[in-house]
Structures are given as structure tokens and as C-alpha cells.
């Protein structure tokens, strides 16, 4: 019988990337097929082997050794904390991530990332030195270049945070901020509050907009007005103290803040006008930072399950290292409301409690 002719051999040496394109998989998957075939699905392994045979690919011993070497290191870029803010959430996340990685036999390799919007600085250098097996990303934002760049290179990664854009790339773990602020409004409404304001971050922040949406959703569900009851501030105590004043002047009896830092600014604004947080105006923060429980009064706040976030990030990253072609996995975790003295019970009337220093709302 006549033999089926093979496809003409490409000009020049056949590379792993060329085989990956022929098989329609990532370079990492081709590497797994050659060195750890048990990690792949049978159909994926067969497709890669067929492409290897058709193209006559033969990896060099040196290249093969390089690709199979595992550093047991996971890269994490850490940004400086802006002046006037605190980063207790990311500190706790990093501890949780490190602990989860340690239990899996890995170590977290920290490298400096510049302040501001996410960039590729640091990532290119580490990959050029072949020092990490994958990356955990935080501070994800709209137009973030890191996910697409890492995916194109076949480098495993997982994000703490959603992409906040129409195009979702890769695996991520996040906390449902909208659910947290929704629960805060539910708690305040059950106490009799009707003039519930929201102090958030400037619009355009994915995390901040998510938390604002939860407040709006709950307010609509209870038939409560939102117009004129929302203010915005950067995550700074003095800026928050100034930003919340119009809400208090308009008669807000409760304030839901997008962070504990903003809630602390609200505390300062209330004390400036002789009012007492919790007694005159209820305040709820977000993040359950270390200072929340030692404030006077202790701050009710929304706690993020950071230990679970750390565990899930490591789990998803190791799964991606094992099978680069598995469908993306996205995990959205529920936060929990921690009730303390800043939201006491009330015998409010139909309009809810009123701050004694603020005029009645129209």
C-alpha cells in the first residue's frame, strides 16, 4: 500500500513552541508530554505526541533538563504602601499564602513592584533567570498587562482578585465585596436605620465599585434612597474625614465604609462635631484590620477569609502547573460581618435614629 506522505519539514530546527502551535496547546503542555506524561489527559497527550512525530521534534538533553527543573518557588510582586495608608489585608494575605505554599512544599519569592498601575517590571527578569515555577498576582486592575503576557508565555499564574474587565484570563480567587456591604446594610436596616450612607473609593476601582454595588443593591431592596448618600475618598484617614462630612450634614444615621481606613476617617469627623461613633451614628468598615477591634468603640466590619484565599491561590496554581490546558477556575469567597460596638441596637422610629448634630434629611 502506498504510504501517506508526511508534511514537509519546516525550515530550520523544530522548536518546542512550533510543536505547541501545531498541537494547539501551550509550550508547558508539550514539556509535560515529554517529561511528565502522566500529568496530561489521554487525548491531550495523544495530540501532542502526534505533533511531535509529524514534525520530527527531538529536544536536546540540555533543554529538556532545563524545562523539567522545578525551583519550588512562587513569585509574588509586592508594592510599597502609600503614605497615610495601611496594608493589613495584604500583610495577612501574604502570611496565609506563604503558609499554604509551605504546606505544599513551595516557598514564596518576593520581588519589588513599582507603585501605581500593575506593570511587567520584575516578572520579565525572574522568568529570564528561570527562578520561579509560577506567579501569584494581586492588585489586579482593568487593563492589567500581566495576565495576558504570562498566558502568552505559558507561565502558570493565579490572581487574588478579578480582572475587572470584559475579558477574563486565567484562574483567580476573590472575595465577594458586594455580598459584604449588602450584609452591612441588612444589619443596619434591621437595627432601624433608614438613612444609610456609603463612603467609598473613587469610581473606576474594581474592588471599590463592587463594594458600592452591594450597598446600592441592599438599599434598593429595602426601598431606601441612595441619591446624595454616597461620597468618595482615597484610602486615607484625613481625606475620608473631609469626604464624609456632607453625608453627616445631610442627616445620615449610619455609614458603610469601603475600608476600615475610611471608617476611621468617619470616626474623626464625628468626634470633631461632638458626636460619638456608634451612639449617634453607626459605622461599619470593611477588612477587619487589626485596629478595628481596639478602636473605641470597637468597629463593626466585614472580614475577608484571607486564610481560605491563600489556600485557594496555591491550590489553583499547582493545578495549573499540572495541567496547563484545564478550563480556567474562578473562586468567589463569601466574607463575614463582624458586629461590634459601632453598630449598637436602637429603638428607632420609622425614620431611624438621628445624629443630634445633623439636620433632618428632607
From TrEMBL:
<feature type="region of interest" description="Disordered">
    <location>
        <begin position="330"/>
        <end position="362"/>
    </location>
</feature>
<dbReference type="Pfam" id="PF00356">
    <property type="entry name" value="LacI"/>
</dbReference>
<dbReference type="GO" id="GO:0003700">
    <property type="term" value="F:DNA-binding transcription factor activity"/>
</dbReference>
<keyword id="KW-0805">Transcription regulation</keyword>
<keyword id="KW-0238">DNA-binding</keyword>
<dbReference type="InterPro" id="IPR010982">
    <property type="entry name" value="Lambda_DNA-bd_dom_sf"/>
</dbReference>
<feature type="domain" description="HTH lacI-type">
    <location>
        <begin position="14"/>
        <end position="68"/>
    </location>
</feature>
<dbReference type="Pfam" id="PF13377">
    <property type="entry name" value="Peripla_BP_3"/>
</dbReference>
<dbReference type="InterPro" id="IPR000843">
    <property type="entry name" value="HTH_LacI"/>
</dbReference>
<keyword id="KW-0804">Transcription</keyword>
<dbReference type="InterPro" id="IPR028082">
    <property type="entry name" value="Peripla_BP_I"/>
</dbReference>
<dbReference type="GO" id="GO:0000976">
    <property type="term" value="F:transcription cis-regulatory region binding"/>
</dbReference>
<dbReference type="InterPro" id="IPR046335">
    <property type="entry name" value="LacI/GalR-like_sensor"/>
</dbReference>
<protein>
    <submittedName>
        <fullName>Alanine racemase</fullName>
    </submittedName>
</protein>
Amino acid at each position: 500500500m502506498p504510504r501517506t506522505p508526511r508534511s514537509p519539514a519546516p525550515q530550520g530546527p523544530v522548536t518546542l513552541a512550533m510543536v505547541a502551535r501545531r498541537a494547539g496547546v501551550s509550550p508547558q503542555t508539550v514539556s509535560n508530554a515529554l517529561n511528565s506524561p502522566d500529568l496530561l489527559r489521554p487525548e491531550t497527550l495523544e495530540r501532542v505526541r502526534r505533533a511531535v512525530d509529524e514534525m520530527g521534534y527531538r529536544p536536546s538533553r540540555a533543554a529538556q533538563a532545563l524545562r523539567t527543573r522545578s525551583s519550588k518557588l512562587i513569585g509574588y510582586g509586592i508594592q510599597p504602601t502609600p503614605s497615610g495608608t495601611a496594608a493589613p489585608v495584604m500583610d495577612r494575605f501574604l502570611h496565609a499564602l506563604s503558609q499554604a505554599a509551605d504546606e505544599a512544599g513551595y516557598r514564596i519569592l518576593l520581588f519589588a513592584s513599582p507603585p501605581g498601575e500593575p506593570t511587567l517590571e520584575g516578572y520579565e527578569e525572574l522568568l529570564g533567570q528561570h527562578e520561579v515555577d509560577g506567579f501569584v498576582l494581586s492588585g489586579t486592575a482593568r487593563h492589567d498587562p500581566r495576565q495576558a503576557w504570562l498566558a502568552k508565555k505559558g507561565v502558570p499564574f493565579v490572581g487574588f482578585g478579578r480582572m475587572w474587565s470584559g475579558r477574563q484570563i486565567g484562574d483567580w480567587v476573590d472575595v465577594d465585596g458586594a455580598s459584604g456591604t449588602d450584609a452591612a446594610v441588612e444589619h443596619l436596616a434591621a437595627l432601624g436605620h433608614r438613612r444609610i450612607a456609603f463612603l467609598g473609593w473613587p469610581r473606576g476601582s474594581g474592588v471599590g465599585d463592587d463594594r458600592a454595588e452591594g450597598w446600592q443593591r441592599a438599599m434598593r431592596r429595602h426601598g431606601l434612597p441612595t441619591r446624595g448618600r454616597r461620597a468618595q475618598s482615597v484610602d486615607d484617614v484625613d481625606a475620608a474625614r473631609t469626604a464624609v462630612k456632607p453625608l453627616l450634614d445631610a442627616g445620615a444615621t449610619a455609614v458603610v465604609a469601603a475600608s476600615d481606613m475610611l471608617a476611621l476617617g468617619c470616626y474623626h469627623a464625628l468626634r470633631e462635631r461632638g458626636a460619638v461613633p456608634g451612639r449617634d451614628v453607626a459605622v461599619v468598615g470593611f477588612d477587619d484590620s487589626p485596629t478595628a477591634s481596639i478602636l473605641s468603640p470597637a468597629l463593626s466590619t466585614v472580614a475577608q477569609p484571607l486564610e481560605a484565599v491563600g489556600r485557594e491561590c496555591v491550590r489553583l496554581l499547582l493545578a495549573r502547573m499540572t495541567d496547563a490546558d484545564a478550563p480556567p477556575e474562578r473562586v468567589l469567597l463569601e466574607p463575614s460581618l463582624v458586629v461590634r460596638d459601632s453598630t449598637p441596637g436602637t429603638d428607632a422610629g420609622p425614620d431611624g435614629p438621628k445624629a443630634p448634630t445633623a439636620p433632618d434629611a428632607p
